[in-house]
Amino acid sequence: MQSTPELPDHHPVIAGYHIGEEMGRGPLGKIYRAHHEQSGQWAVLRGFARPDGVEEARWDAAKAQFHDLLSAHQSLPAHPAIQKILGFGEEEGLFWVASEFFEAKTLHYVLTEEGPQALAWAITLFRQVADAVDWAGLHGLCHTDLTPFNILMVRSPELAPGEIQVKVINFGLAHARRKFGSRYAAPEQMVGGEGDRRSDVYSVGVLLSEVLTGKPLIEGETANEIAAKVRSAPVPVFPNFWPAYVQNILTAMLARDPARRYDRVTQAIEDLAAKRNPSFSTDLADRADAIQGLAPREAVEKAREIERQVRQELNMGVTASEALPRGSAFVYGSFAPDTRIRLQEYEQSLSEQDLLEIRRRLTPIHVI
Question: Which domains are delineated in the chain?
Answer without folding.
Answer: 13-100 (3.30.200.20), 104-274 (1.10.510.10), 284-360 (no CATH)
